[in-house]
Amino acid sequence: MVEKNSRRKPLNLRKMKGQDLSEQDLVRADLKGADLRGANLSYANLLEADLSGADLTNANLTGACLARANLEKTRFHRCTIERTSLKGAWLKQTSFRQVQLENVDLRNVKIEESSFVKVKVKAAKLQKAFFQSCTFKNTEISSCDISDAIFSHCDFAKSRLENLYGEDSRFIEVTWEKAFLSENKDEWKIEKSKKTGPQKKFVIVISLIILILGLVLFEQMQKVHSPKQKIYKEIFTLESQIRRESRQRETSLSFEEALSDEVIAPLLAKLEEKEAQLNKMNKDQERLWEEEAKKQLPRDLFSDATLKENVRNRYELLVRER
Asked: Is the same domain home to 172 and 227?
């Protein structure tokens, strides 16, 4: 891609910004962190050059050779990249923004954790290219040869991929949120791709609905359980009082005798009242459970006779514990 020319312009490495470096021989040049904003690098030979951390904003890279170059954390913003060779180059955390990559050679390139925002990639050679954890946002990739290319864990949000051709290309766990894919996408090997935007939104909506229903049910359960715990505490207090009064007697009173005792009888009456409240709460709680909504409790379940028997059993148990 680099045209040979007998002319050689003097190179000023101190002042790179806006410099005319066209057709310069910069093979293996150390341009780490260089400020190359607005520089003219058209048809320059940057084979195996170190451009890590360099800023190439608004630079002209038409026909330049950056094969096997180190482009880690290099910035390509609003620059011209046409008929440029990046074959075998290494890019990590590299930024492309508002750039058109046309007829660019990206064969065997390795690109990791890099971002492409509002980028147009057209008629590029992407054979055996490897993209790992890259972000393509509002990017168009069209009419490219992606034979044996691998896109792993990449995000193609709001991007457009069409007329891509070539065999054995692989897309592994990529995200297609609001992306447009051409009709020949079935020819690509798409493995474990994440859900598209509408599907993802549907899952989020369903999850929110389930969460809201869960919170409502929890609130209703709390309304039942909080007073229920209070009644259990009151029953425990009444039982303690009955046990204490029973121990003060020389002989144990039968249940019928206890019903006539001026001290224990009122406690038993309160205990019966709390039993009734507890039974009512249990019935209300069962109504909240959808699985038991159709189950109807017997009408005589909480009859006075049953309450009296419950209290009798509690009392006789307390007396035995004295």
From this structure: no
